[in-house]
Amino acid sequence: MVGHALVTITVQAKVASHLLATRPEFADEALTRISAAGTAALDELRGIVGVLREVPGDGTPMSPGPRLEDVGTLVADARAAGTAVSITLTGFPVPDPVPDSVQVAAYRHVQEALTNVRRHAASTPAEVTVAIDEQEVRVRVRNGPGGEVRPLPPGHGTGLLGLRERAGILGGTLTAGTSVTVKAITD
Q1: What is the pLDDT of residue 6?
Q2: Residue 150: CB atoms within 10 Å
Q3: pTM for this one?
Q4: Collapsing DSSP states into helix, strand and coil, what is residue 176?
Q5: In the chain, which residue ranges form alpha helices assigned H by DSSP?
Q6: N or C: which end of the chain has fewer CB within 10 A?
Q7: Measured between alpha carbons, how far is 164 from 38 in angstroms, rounded to an integer?
């Protein structure tokens, strides 16, 4: 979540800088998004620190993290940042047998994919599809080719590796290209 928020902040800061120079009347919107993303990152960090500080048995409920129902928020955030995104959900509301770990992983996959769309192909529309049945959760994020591919600085660009590892831990698979497809076992 924090990494996603930082990417959003970075992209919106570049947009705000450009708008201040060319269309200052629109810069306020980008700055508002930067503020919202920063607040979300701080909230997430507070939650992480809170979990790390929890003492077992103190009665404090631990949140399982984001859920599949929260994917719509990711789409709304991407739209607010200027990316055209459509969403198709099948099998909702999420049935009980879908473990929290699968729900968090699926959410994170959509989040990473939309971050990559914004980073590498922001001018192309994206499609998010989440399909749930008794045996698996399928997540697909598709987009068209982006513009110029910019190499990432050293230490960046491990998002797909992390996604592949997370899917594998849950017994799933990840396929990446101009779309990312993830399948995870629900039972």
Answers
A1: 77
A2: 9
A3: 0.64
A4: strand
A5: 2-22, 27-53, 71-80, 100-121, 159-169
A6: C
A7: 27
Does 133 or 130 have the greater pLDDT score? 130
Whether the Cβ atoms of residue 37 and residue 29 lie closer than 8 Å to each other: no
Tokens of 147: 């513009």
Backbone angles phi, psi at 155, to 5 degrees: 90, 0
Q: Which residue has the tokens 């899917």?
A: 167
Please tell me which residue, 41 or 68, carries the higher pLDDT value.
68
178 band by pLDDT with thresholds 50, 70 and 90: low
51 pLDDT above the threshold of 60: no
pLDDT digits (tens, 9 = 90+) for 18-32: 888 998 888 888 888
Q: Are 186 and 136 in contact (CB under 8 A)?
A: yes
Could you give the C-alpha distances from 15 to 4, 9, 11, 40, 83, in angstroms and in order?
Answer: 17, 10, 6, 19, 13
> Could you give the strand order of the β-sheet that contains 173-176, starting from the edge strand earlier in sequence?
85-90, 126-132, 136-143, 179-185, 173-176
- 67 burial (CB, 10 Å; 0-12 / 13-18 / 19+) is middle
Using CA of residue 166, residue 170, residue 171, residue 172, what is the dihedral sign? negative
Exposed (0-12), middle (13-18) or buried (19+): which is 90, by Cβ within 10 Å? Answer: exposed
Q: Which residue has the tokens 């996959």?
A: 109
